[in-house]
Amino acid sequence: MAKRLDGRLLAARHEASLRASIAQHLATADDPPGLAVVRIGDDPASGVYVRNKAQACGRVGIESRIIHHPATASQQEVLESIHQLNGNPSCDGILVQLPIPPPLDARQLLLAVDPAKDVDGLHPLNLGRLVRGEPGLRSCTPAGIMALLAHGGIALDGMRALVIGRSILVGQPMAILLQQANATVTVAHSRTRDLAHHCRQAELLVVAAGKPGLVGADWVRPGVVVVDVGMHRVPPQRQGEQGTLRGDVCFEAVEPLASHVTPVPGGVGPMTVAMLLWNTVQAWRLRRGGVVGTDLAPLPR
Ligand code: NAD
Asked: How far does the centroid of ligand 1 lie from the alpha carbon of residue 210, in Å?
């Protein structure tokens, strides 16, 4: 039976460390760290994610604010609010919540964020730093997965890894981080032929396809490490019940075969939020030119 890579537990530890670090350095830093989340439209899932992020900020001492634009907002209106946040000294981090509803141009909005405040790591400058292996703000989900793997004692050096999905948000940065940790990485996508064959070769599987239950027991080799990034809302089956989340992996089928597996919920999701907090504190520290200390919990670059 696989060991569970427990994202809730690790995220709670990171939160405790960040809370202590913020409290310790508040006297010399004048202001607490500040995160602004720009939300556009009324996508209900985005609403839940934005609320979760704001609550997590509150737990560690980051001041958060949500700038909520209607779905009818113009490109110029959203750009102006990003420019204002760029110039606001009490704002250390800016996150533009995805997905951005059409016809708005997501690329232009992400490009408008000051790279020093780009806590989602999606600005081309930060993506370039990632590719070059230079320090910088990293995409939260892949960075969270690296932390989870390190905490689970997974030796990535020389490991055969398969990343399913090639989005800029998850798949691409994930593949780069794994490569930098000396894994041998294959990236699969919607046009990959015989995905099952590639899966069976992998010693580490990171599944970020956005397809519920894509990977089942017959696709995995015994002893594989499985990281499930997928997040799909399952509505309540009966009245009075609560809905739940499921991933891209058939958890019950894969758990008996794998050596390690992330649950959904409680795996990658909490680590994504923890990395957002970590990036915000990192940006706060860097923007104050080293006024605050360097004693944050060591996490992957
Ligand atoms: P995306 O839609 O941008 O990208 C999906 C990728 O998967 C694409 O590159 C596509 O080519 C590939 N793909 C699609 N179907 C495939 C198939 N049948 N076989 C192989 N490849 C296939 O999605 P994303 O933003 O990368 O997110 C992926 C999933 O991860 C979604 O379910 C999303 O909700 C979830 N997610 C979770 C977190 C978290 O914190 N847990 C964070 C971000 C995204």
From this structure: 4
Cα gap 83→93, rounded to integer Å: 13
Residue 94 · residue 117 · CB < 8 Å: yes
Contacts of 16 (CB under 8 A, 6+ apart): none
Q: Is the pTM of this model over 0.90?
A: yes
Q: Give percent of the chain above pLDDT 90.
A: 85
Q: Which strand (E) or helix (H) includes residue 173?
A: helix 171-180
pLDDT band at 299 (very low <50, low <70, confident <90, very high): very low
Catalytic residue chosen out of the listed positions 6, 53, 172, 248: 53
pLDDT (0 to 100) of residue 290? 62
Which of 19-28, 65-74, 132-141, 165-174 comes out lowest in average pLDDT?
19-28
Q: Which domains does the chain have, with CATH numbers?
A: 29-120 (3.40.50.10860), 140-269 (3.40.50.720)
pLDDT at 220: 98
Task: Give catalytic status of residue 211 as yes or no.
Answer: no
* Binding-site sequence positions for NADP(+): 165-167
Q: Is the CB of 208 under 6 A from ligand 1?
A: yes
Q: Is the CB of 190 under 6 A from ligand 1?
A: yes
Residue 53 known to be catalytic: yes
**Distance from Cα 207 to the centre of ligand 1, integer Å:** 8
User: Does 97 participate in catalysis according to the annotation?
Assistant: yes
Report residue 215 as tokens: 């990977």
Rg (CA), the chain: 19
